Amino acid sequence: MVQAYILIQTEVGRASVVAETISKIPGVIQAEDVTGPYDVIVRAQADTVDELGRMVVARVQQVEGITRTLTCPVVHL
User: Fold this and answer.
1) Parallel/antiparallel/unpaired status of strands 66-73 and 40-46
2) Of the four listed, 6, 24, 38, 67, which is most buried by Cβ atoms within 10 Å?
3) Are the C-beta atoms of 7 and 68 separated by less than 8 Å?
4) What is the pTM of this model?
C-alpha cells in the first residue's frame, strides 16, 4: 500500500467545494481545506505508485476549481 499527501491550490473561494468533492474519490482517506500556501490537503492511498499517479491525474486533477497539485508520497525510513 502506498500513501501520499496531495497539496492542492484552488481558485479563490473554491477550497471547501474541492475538499468535499475529492473526499468522495475512492482511495482518498481524508481531504481538508486549510490556510497557508495550499488550500486543500488530501491523504490518499493506492496499491501501487502507478495507481496513485493515475488517481491523481485522472480523478483529483479533474476536479473543477483546482489550479495546481503537488503529490508527496509517504516514506518509511
Assistant:
1) unpaired
2) 6
3) no
4) 0.94
